[in-house]
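Researcher: Go.
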Amino acid sequence: MEISSVHNPLLQKIRKAVRDGRQTEDGLIVAEGPHLLEEALRGVWTIVRVVTTAEGRSKYASLLQRTDAEVTDVSARAFHSISGTQHSQELLALLQPRTWTWSDLTRGPALIVALDGIQDPGNAGTIVRSTEAFGGTGVIFLPGSAHVANGKLLRASAGSIFRVPFLEGMRVPEFLSNAQRSGQALYALDAHADMSVGQADLSCPLALIAGNEGSGISPELLRAARPIRIPTHNVDSINAAVACSVTLFAAQQQRNAS
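Model: Structure:
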């Protein structure tokens, strides 16, 4: 039976989660569009439900056949009321995220990225994508960072968030304690650091800290970490996503050479 009322409780729950960029009240994350559903099928999250229209059911029939999740039909008007994108593709999934632990992020020679107040979800999602691309072992979203459930973050990660281990909401003292206990070196990206990325030993187990787009890395983390910079020409700094990507690539190169 097709849902046509925009006041339907399920649609109200989805609409609120999309608007707030947060999980639903029962802990699900809204992932909109066929690309994210396809990536979710490759990931380790659980697909709980798919919401689509009659046109979407027909258009994405082969994709829908690959999931065992319940498919809920809604009218085009109702779907438009819950869509978080300007040009709706009339398909979204409700996903249950995988629960990760610190040990999941530190398997093998750890290469963790810690986001210290990275508020821009596009930057945060790109960092997750680069973490997967360059062999990172996990991402930590420290307080003040964008939420994993943010639709822009999901799209920017291009599905990597469904596979990369992450921890969200961990406090700085807990992060530092865990890193010390498990033997990770701490490096902080700082445009004014004396040491360049090329001079740092990135082959050891480490956590790379990237700071807020405006205020940079918090003093508590700067005191605990070794600052490193990426040499640039004619510009004072580059954004957090680019800086993380460059450093993760450098770490991959060092590790491959060792």
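Model: The chain has a mean pLDDT of 94.
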